[in-house]
Amino acid sequence: MSKRRVVRRKGVGTTRTYHGPRGRRKPSILVRLLRRVPSWGWWIGAGLVVAGYVWFFYYFFVGPFGFRWRALYGDVSYPEGYEIHGIDISHHQGRIDWDDLKDNGSINKCPIRFVMIKATEGATQTDENFRDNFYQARENGFTRGAYHFYSVHTPAEQQAWHFINTVKLENGDLPPVLDVEHKPKSQTDEQFKQSVLEWLDIVERYYQVKPIIYTYFRFKTRYLNDTIFNQYPYWIAHYYVDSLEYQGPWKFWQHTDAGRLPGIKGNVDFNIYNGSYYDLRQMTIGSQETIGVKAYSE
């Protein structure tokens, strides 16, 4: 039962209800929940924190991202035993200072021998820097090649003809390249293989040379591992490793996307050729025997 108390201030009498001692503030919901955690729960929490630190250390300094971290901020590592080096470029490299690249660019103290250049994507897109890059690569003495990025949104035939109508390969150029990294969800594995083969067949018939297939090795072993694809030269993408896990034959190896060179702002992909410079030149259009098929016509 409450009591009545008279409080007087400056001669004025007022009354208020007295409820006893003021109560303590209730703890927050978070504090109350933490109080309910048993002692073994704290040990589990501490273990998770330690595991998080271990994962962080592995991911950034030991695992695949660690290789990228060291490639970006540490000493550059190059695959051993290869002397023929090259790069691949697109509009992502911006405007290239070709004189600086030609005069001062080298990879692992070896000259840059070849440049792969993005030309087209899908059935309508053309890389905005393709024509200038393609011209400058030849003018500055590099063995050049052009690649098409395969789209999952348009038919293979349309993509093939878009590449053909855009890229005028000449004697001394490397064979056309199909960069395929994704499979359409709407296609079965078999339908996808047939679409890739359709692009390869149309382009091969037109240029009279077998195109190069570019993809990362897990994609190839998953989707393009049929023996029919082994007849095409393989350009493998496998970053930040000292040796390849892929056991099949290959011609090119894109081993990092964190290269730096004079004349190019930002990072650029580094590649090696699996052979001598003579072998590389023998691979170019006009340096090999003519394929025994007629030129493709619409």
TrEMBL record:
CDD domains on file: GH25_YegX-like
Keywords on record: Glycosidase, Hydrolase, Membrane, Transmembrane, Transmembrane helix
PROSITE patterns in the record: GLYCOSYL_HYDROL_F25_2
A molecular function (GO) term: lysozyme activity
Stretches that traverse the bilayer: 40-61
GO BP terms: carbohydrate catabolic process; cell wall macromolecule catabolic process; peptidoglycan catabolic process
Coiled coil (UniProt feature): none
Pfam families: Glyco_hydro_25
Region (Disordered) location: 1-22
Stretches with biased composition (Basic residues): 1-11
Family under the similarity heading: Belongs to the glycosyl hydrolase 25 family.
Protein name stated in the entry: Lysozyme
Organism: Xylanibacter ruminicola
